[in-house]
Specification:
nucleic acid binding, Transposable element Tc3 transposase, RNaseH_sf
């Protein structure tokens, strides 16, 4: 799912990406979806020696004090939004989180 649906959206328009590929570094955490062989192989092709993460050419140190943008702000903000309104079932949770 990550490779087919999420990563293409992150990379955006192919023409723009091709023109700036040499200056882009791709960084991800050690989530299992990001560590699959297919994802790592794809990143090796698209970001030759320019991606940071578990199993990549530049390793993300375990328990690194560095925070990604998502760790610094987004996940805490999302947690606040999710827990702000009590819900009774999964459907309400999905509706509240969208």
């Amino acid at each position: 799912m990550f490779l087919q649906q999420v990563l293409p959206q992150l990379l955006g328009d192919e023409q723009i990406f091709a023109s700036t590929r040499q200056t882009i570094w791709f960084q991800h955490d050690g989530a299992p979806a990001h560590f699959s062989c297919d994802v790592r192989n794809h990143l090796d092709v698209r970001f030759v020696q320019q991606w940071i993460g578990r199993g990549g050419p530049v390793r993300w140190p375990a328990r690194s004090p560095d925070l990604s943008c998502l760790d610094f702000f987004l996940w805490g903000h999302m947690k606040t939004l999710v827990y702000d309104t009590p819900v009774d079932n999964v459907e309400e949770l999905v509706a509240e989180s969208q």
